[in-house]
Amino acid sequence: MEVTQTAHAPSAAAVQPAQHYAQRTPVPFLSMMIGPSVLVIVSVVVFPLLYSFYLSFTSYTLLKPIPNWVGLRNYLRLLDNDVFWLAFGNTLLFLFVTVNLEFLFGLFLSQLLARTVRGQSILRTLLMIPMMFAPVLVGFQFRWFFNDQAGLVNNILKSLGLISQGIPWLVGRATAMFAIAVADIWMNTPVMTIILLAGTLSLPRELYEAAEVDGASGWQKFIHITFPLLAPFITIAMTIRSLDVARGFDIVSIMTGGGPAHRTELLWTYVQRTAILDAKFALGSAMSYITIIVTIGFTLYLFRQLLKARLVE
Amino acid sequence: MAGSPTAPRRTAAYWQRHIGSLVLDVFVWGLLILMALPAVWIVLTSVRNPIEINATPPVWLPRALTLEGFKPLFGQATTATGSVPFQLYFRNSIIVGVGSTIVSLMLGTMAGYAFSRFRFRGRNTLFLGIMLSRAVPGIALSLPLFLLFAQLGLADKLWGLGLVYVAVNVPFTVWLMDGFFREIPRELTEAAYIDGCSDWQAFTQISLPLALPGLAASSIFAFLAAWNEFQLAVVLTRTIASKTAPVGLFDFTGQFTIDWRGMAALSVLMMIPAIFFVLAVQRNLVQGLTLGAVKD
Fold first, then answer.
1. Which residue has the higher pLDDT, B7 or A184?
2. What is the pLDDT of residues A40-52, one digit of tens each?
3. pTM for this structure?
4. Nearest CA in chain A to B260
5. pLDDT-derived band of residue A313, with 50, 70 and 90 as boundaries?
6. For burial by CB atoms within 10 Å, which of A21, A172, A235, B122 has the most?
7. B86-290: CATH homologous superfamily?
């Protein structure tokens, strides 16, 4: 690794044999190694996306599958589609709230776990349980937990005497968004925690011992030692999380389907509703393009930091 | 920390620390048991008497255990629901999951090695492009694939779905393997070149055997992603010829009612392979996720 770090410095290092093979560009070998991956991604991801990009400028619907060119009409329609903008805002809000809360809970849990003495490895296994759930399964389970008649949440609240009537969680906008966020946070906090815990456990003990000698409090140690040294792990946790943002779709799709009356509509559920249920394929494609831009923008924003270590000048 | 090596003198400070660590441990255990509760609840539901499921007041612990809920999954129709061709969904999920994992592992490992060991023009753009293809939401991808697959005769075919999962899993495999290969000292590869190895030999005989933990971690991520995937499967599969287990969950939903027990039973069976794999490579998993963070 050290070799890479010094490699692009125009120094004597350039003549070391260590640089010899790294600076060769064996084109046939590299094509053979990378070509298949690129081929699969181009044919299964890039080409279909170009196709739907083309369709987004046509009048294609599933009922009338004739792609008549209509120019920007679908995109212009989206501009004054209130539900679309509602879904757009909901999506940004949902991502902002859940990802940040998942990070904070992950950080909190990782700091607790790092200090736990009894049964740390069992705890770590317990922590991985949500990772084994299919998102669609999480959706179904939480839809049932938040059921107004026999849901676990209402049952617990009733047993504690906090409410007498079941709360219709998935009906009101605020309560439904809350329920969906709880499901998403439950599913995604463990990955954050595991990465941050691995980071915390890898930090050098000497620093803490030195700080203790100087009489630093637990909070001071966290702020001045743990948090800054965890930065690379935080980046990794956020990036890996960002790659999976669309998994939230499975949860929302099953818990509320974006309803009732668009109250929990996110871009993903609205694309599905428009393109598949309403058969307006071209309009749905136009919408999905905006979804792609939002998602990729979000990923790219988080990815920049992490990529610095992997990209070479 | 209670684990400090100094000889414990039973002073007030000692007890304070001791009790403090006990309180912390109890708190953390409580928190994680609370987090594991949904899983416990699913298992309990799968073995309940259906009357208990919608009972008011709620029945917390099942009064009697029954495996009735699993019967429809094994071809025995009950009055509540017809039988669910669970064996077929499971078979489809395993074929698609294992098949796509093997292929994406092969492709991703080769590309990851090339990215980690060589520099060439367009490397960064290509690497970034591959990573960003992973961020495309499944729903956006499912629309055009739905049309193209119908035209190409790939719709409702297992290998069509498998091909899509390969494309979805390659980027993360490239990411993980690039990280693992960077961990292997370059000197080993250099020595291989001096001994007259070709590029391919240096890859397969020197680096690949050392990257086995990376392959283990990558295979879990790829398998679980395919095993649990829903957005694409629900659009690209139609019949029992290619429906996977996550799509099969919908067999328990009627227009107005949901057979929660049957669904819980299928969920329990769906989680068995996931639990098995995650526990088997738990350590590599964590290592794979955090690679590259301790550098610079």
1. A184
2. 999 999 999 999 9
3. 0.86
4. A144
5. low
6. A235
7. MetI-like (1.10.3720.10)
Whether residue A56 has pLDDT greater than 50? yes
Q: B228–A128: do the CB atoms touch at under 8 Å?
A: no
Q: How far apart are CA A244 and CA A255, in angstroms?
A: 18
CA distance A174 to chain B (A): 23
d(CA B51, CA B49): 5
Interface touch B267/A232, C-beta < 8 Å? no
CB contact under 8 A, B267 and A137: yes
Which of A19, A20, A24, A44 should be substituted to probe chain B, the one whose Cβ sees the most B Cβ atoms within 10 Å? Answer: A44
pLDDT digits (tens, 9 = 90+) for B216-247: 889 988 998 999 999 899 989 988 888 999 99
Q: A133–B39: do the CB atoms touch at under 8 Å?
A: yes
Mutation for testing the B interface, residue in A8, A117, A137 having most B CBs under 10 Å:
A137
The Cα B275–Cα B76 span in angstroms is: 26
Indicate whether A45 and A83 sit together in one domain: no
How many angstroms separate the CA of residue B75 from the nearest CA in chain A? Answer: 22
Q: What's the complex ipTM? A: 0.85
Q: Where are the domains of chain B?
A: 12-69, 86-290
Rounded (to 5) percent helix, strand, coil in chain B: 70, 0, 30
Task: Give me B289's structure tokens.
Answer: 């996720």
Residues of A whose CB is below 8 A from B193: 20-21
| Structure tokens belonging to residue A241 | 């999380």
Same domain, A3 and A111: no
Domain span holding position A283? 72-308
Q: What amino acid is encoded at A100 in this protein?
A: N
| pLDDT (0 to 100) of residue B46 | 87
